Amino acid sequence: VAGLGNYGMRGTRHSVGMAVLDRLARQLAVAEGWRVDRRCCADVAMATAHGLELVLLKPRRFMNLNGLSVASAAEIYSLGPEDIYLVHDDLDKALGKVAIKLGGSARGHNGVQSCISALHSNEMTRLRVGIGRP
Q1: Counting CB atoms within 10 angstroms of each CB, which of 20, 44, 45, 92 has the fewest?
Q2: Which parts form a coiled-coil structure per UniProt (predicted)?
């Protein structure tokens, strides 16, 4: 589960993917388990939920380069695009509204496009979190 955003810019609308991962880590009682993984240039925490092993990932790169971290982590943890969930902001959704989407285009989202390019696939599941228009 990769929370897309601009690392170091907490609290901004475009980093809502990382905020969702912080919340998920707290709910799964692994919030203290974040560690820097230099191999994929990301903060990583391991968790278990409903019998599934999860890799929580917050790339330490700008949004338009998040895919490099996601692709590196996919290789390190032997994950295919179909195993990856991207959590990211969506300008076209009202603030706080969420939608799940399987595959498809990036719809102009630079972080998603970076992931599609780096993984050579668009088969990731996306949790789109509405941030509304300014």
Answers
A1: 92
A2: none
Identified catalytic residue from 14, 50, 88, 120:
14
Give me the CATH number covering residue 48: 3.40.50.1470
Total number of domains constituting the chain: 1
70/4 Cα distance (integer angstroms)? 9
14 is known as an active-site residue = yes
Give the domain range for residue 14.
2-130
> Closest Cα to residue 15, out of 58, 56, 57, 45?
58
Q: Return the exposure string of 86-105: e unless at least 16 CB atoms fall within 10 Å of the residue's CB, then b.
A: bbbbbeebeeeeeeeeeeee
Cα–Cα separations (whole angstroms), residue 126 to 2, 5, 100? 9, 14, 6
For residue range 3-53, list pLDDT tens digits in order: 999 988 888 888 999 999 999 999 999 999 999 999 999 999 999 999 999
Q: Quote the Cα angle for 15-86-118, to 5°.
A: 100
